[in-house]
Amino acid sequence: MYDASDLARLQFIRGLRDDAGFSLAQIGQLLEDEAARERGRERLRQTSDPAERRVYLTEAQERVERQIALLEEKAARLATMIDEAQVRLARIHGRLAELDGKPSAHPIRPSKRAAVAKARP
User: Fold this and answer.
1) Under DSSP, is residue 45 helix (H, G, I), strand (E, B) or coil?
2) Is residue 73 within 8 Å of 80, Cβ to Cβ?
3) Is the Cα dihedral 48, 54, 55, 61 positive or negative?
4) CA–CA distance from 102 to each of 48, 92, 94, 109 (Å)?
5) Cβ atoms of 97 and 103 closer than 8 Å
6) DSSP string of 50-65, one letter each residue
7) Residue 79 above 60 pLDDT?
8) Model confidence pLDDT, tens digit, residues 6-32
9) Cβ-based neighbours of 19, under 8 Å, separated by 6 or more
10) Number of neighbouring beta carbons within 10 Å of residue 87
11) What is the rounded distance in angstroms from the CA atom of residue 110 to the CA atom of residue 91?
12) How far apart are CA 94 and CA 14, in angstroms?
């Protein structure tokens, strides 16, 4: 009933939803952007008019910039979640060390991803 490309698309959608935590609206936007990218590529191949090519490339640039913003937002949220989990883990390690009569040996360390995400404009 489905061909290999249909199955790959469904697996991609499921991965975005389940693994990456994208909403259905975000997935829909990413899929529409991908379809528009394919249409734009075909239109670029069919014209040599610089004005038309500029329009198509500007549209593509806007789509990619939107995708980057969405992905960076998702990465920043994930980095924050990782940092919060690391703080909880450091507290647990500290409490375990106290039970053993030792000073806490696990300082709280923000993730590298959080630093990268926070450094981006």
Assistant:
1) helix
2) no
3) positive
4) 73, 13, 9, 20
5) yes
6) HHHHHHHHHHHHHHHH
7) yes
8) 898 889 899 888 888 889 999 998 889
9) none
10) 13
11) 14
12) 39
CB neighbour list of residue 24: distance below 8 Å, 6 or more residues apart: 17
* CB atoms inside a 10 Å sphere around CB 93: 15
Question: Is the separation of the CB atoms in 67 and 44 below 8 Å?
Answer: no
Higher pLDDT, 73 or 115: 73
Q: How far from 66 is each of 27, 36, 107, CA to CA, in Å?
A: 13, 13, 37
Q: Are the CB atoms for 84 and 92 separated by under 8 Å?
A: no
| Tokens 């995400």 found at | 117
- The length of the chain, given as a count of residues: 121
Provide the whole-model pTM: 0.65
Residue 70, both tokens: 């969405």
What is the four-CA torsion angle of 67, 73, 74, 80, rounded to 10 degrees? 160
